[in-house]
Amino acid sequence: MRLKDKVAIITGAGSGFGKAMAELFAAEGAKVMVSDLNGAAAVAVAKGITDAGGTAISSACDVTSAADLAAMTDATLKAFGKIDILVNNAGFPQRNGSMFDVDEATFDKIFNVNVKSLYLTTKEIVPHLIESQGNVVNIASTAALSPRPGLTWYNASKGAVVTMSKSMALELAPKQVRVNALCPVFASTGMSVEFMGGVDTQEIRNKFVSTIPLGRENTPRDLAHAALWLASDDASFITGVALEVDGGRCV
């Protein structure tokens, strides 16, 4: 078990990438806080983990709220006594279209969820990772490295995640806290229809897949295994990377 006795907080874990990571981390021995804005979804994922013999609790948490993050962190510490791993997975998409058509409220939402949340979790949770010499995995995107047209503000928010991850890695390295980012390509998650412009058709999916050299969509399981490696001691000398999980998309 690669995460035996580790305690992991995973945000946005009620579905998609986060759910897959929560389930895999638990199967590998971690005690998992399943955090999601959708409290019912978080409860369901945590129940699935415990029913399978793992250890998990849940929290309804808005990652843009310092108060919600504080309550979720306190619940984790009360249940498990420490925090070893933070996965900043919660995200908000931009509907594919002209940069001029994105209103200010949507722009603010993209940056509050995708960028400001990392500031807030750093302030609230990273001090506990310093105590445990733990690590952070931030979910960025290939959008940060090889932007697609029609997603300008989302691309920019994920570019910020990559830069923040690298800077955090440098600042926290003397404290033996590792920080890495993952850059997944298009996948079948709750956000995928937004990236397709609000219409999900096989033709549009095929256009996305045609840009991936390995010739298939990413899956939540693909990203979960990459996150598991970065979060585990197998990657103990890896920090400050933005690992592409993209079937060759960014080559």
What is the CATH top level name? Alpha Beta
Question: How would the global form be characterised?
Answer: globular
Mean pLDDT figure: 95
The major sheet is characterized as:
7 strands, parallel
The overall strand count is 7
CATH architecture: 3-Layer(aba) Sandwich
Query: What is the radius of gyration?
Result: 17 Å
Instruction: Count the domains.
Output: 1
Question: What features would you describe in this structure?
Answer:
With 251 residues, this protein is α/β, with parallel strands linked by helices. It has a single domain, classed as 3-Layer(aba) Sandwich (Rossmann fold), CATH 3.40.50.720. It has helices at 16-27, 39-51, 66-80, 104-132, 152-172, 192-195, 202-209, 220-231; strands at residues 7-10, 31-36, 55-60, 85-88, 135-139, 178-184, 242-245. Strands 3-2-1-4-5-6-7 form a seven-stranded parallel β-sheet, sandwiched between helices. Helix 4 (104-132) links the parallel strand 4 (85-88) and strand 5. Helix 4 runs parallel beside helix 5.
Task: Offer a concise description of the structure.
This protein is an alpha/beta fold. The protein has helices at residues 16-27, 39-51, 66-80, 104-132, 152-172, 192-195, 202-209, 220-231; strands at residues 7-10, 31-36, 55-60, 85-88, 135-139, 178-184, 242-245.
